[in-house]
Design a protein that fits this description.
The protein is α+β, with helices and mostly antiparallel strands. It has eight helices and 26 strands.
Amino acid sequence: MFAAGGIAIGLSYLVDTPAEHATAAPDAARTDQSGDKSIEDDAVASVETDADPDTPTAAKDTETWTQVVGMGDSLSGLLAKAGLDTETSRKVILAIGSEFDVRHLKPGHRLALELSDDGLPQTATLEIDDGSRIQATFGEAPSVQRLEPELVSVRHAGEATVNSSIFAALDGAGIPTRFATDLELILGETFDLRTQLAGGEHIRLMWREHSSGDRVVGDPTIDFAQLDLADGRYEILWPDDNSRRTTIFKDGELLQTFDQPIRGARLSSAYGLRMHPVHGTVRMHSGLDFATRQGAAVEATQRGKVSFMGKRSGYGTVVELDHGNGVQTLYAHLSAMNEKLEIGQQIDAGTQIGRAGSTGTSTAPHLHYEIRVDGTPVSPLADTQLRGSSSRVRTKNSLLLVGEMQTELDRLLASRG
């Protein structure tokens, strides 16, 4: 069981939020909603919709109405376009809003309604940009569930030589340019990639794209990178969907490892000064942000004792762990906490402590992760007190995996002709 951190839905606000403003809602983001509740581990929730018990759950004739969300569209506007009245639209928004913050409605999302012959919805399904679907069923037994897509992953490879910038090099080679940011973020505590590039450096990358049917779903995911720079060869191994560890080698020697709280998640914001996405001013970012879907499992990065579970201003719903020797970790903006955990309980690395969300000062589902030493935040990518030294077995296994990645990368590049 998990304790939810509150669903940030003010219906009067949600109804009128257009899609082009889906990630910029500062007034709503500053409000830390309360109202904790219990949800099942499989994230299927029941929603009260005030449905008339005399309304039949099935009709003889049904009609399916679909619409792709466009720039400026709001959920209320789409429902009105489908012919639903204000009260019925309110119930649909409330149902979908229990599993998805409709402030984050974006162009490209898809809404489908199954309407009975009297024009009332039997089901409402919102397909979002990671391929997940929020499906609300109405009638005598109303329910809402989040349906994860069955995705097919296809691996790709590419190489490029830097002349002017890494962005231009990737773009010219047909490699997703967002990988320039991925490389800069993960290497941020090792060196400044932009200043390190003088021209002539060679880069080889391998990544995955995910598809459902004939549609590409979500962003491509980087798996491996080889950078041949002036001072040596750097090889970076990102975690796959079943792993939490990033490993960096230089000339075959272990340079750095990092264990992240969400398996396979993408690092989206680094430690240090940045322009705050809500307040619009330059502020210190005291941890790392990981872009992920609402409800993704959050795990303890190392063994520790649960020292806090609850809400903190700006952070929303938070779990904190004490690892001894003055070292603590903090996991923020959670949508739910693991109710089986108790203050003072010792837990192992990999224990699920909650689910990712967007509580507190936040603009979209993500996880904020901090490491603090004697109460002061430090860069999680540079910290050595929590991480400690990597075992020889782990280092050997990582090197073997790097070799496998290199072999696969060679094969993919050769297949391109």
